[in-house]
């Protein structure tokens, strides 16, 4: 029986190109070939140039570059730093026709520790959903439609 938790790569991925295998496992993805070289653990003193990136994170960081200095020294209780959250958006410039978020939460606490970045990005991505917004809930079952969704069956 195999040990748990598993470590290393499964034999089923041995045939894949090296640039793909670099993104599997427990290590941070670093690949010169794909220009994925942002070191999330050792943040540079200055924010990398994101002016040609197409993401909500890059857009906000270009508008408010002071956010980088404000947030780069913070970490969550689980050790998630700003670099872990923005690595995908720094490594992947995206395409002007497809704006991505460019940001990931490394854990639940990331939303609070890095709220000055997450809140405006979430708001922009969803076309107006500020941090203090609440989702309306109406549990009145009499308002549920009885129209058959698929009348054929």
TrEMBL record:
GO terms for molecular function: creatine kinase activity. It comes from the Eukaryota. One of its GO terms (biological process) is phosphocreatine biosynthetic process. SUPFAM superfamilies: Guanido kinase N-terminal domain (SSF48034). PANTHER family: ARGININE OR CREATINE KINASE, PHOSPHAGEN KINASE C-TERMINAL DOMAIN-CONTAINING PROTEIN. Belongs to the ATP:guanido phosphotransferase family. This is Creatine kinase S-type, mitochondrial. It comes from Perkinsus olseni.
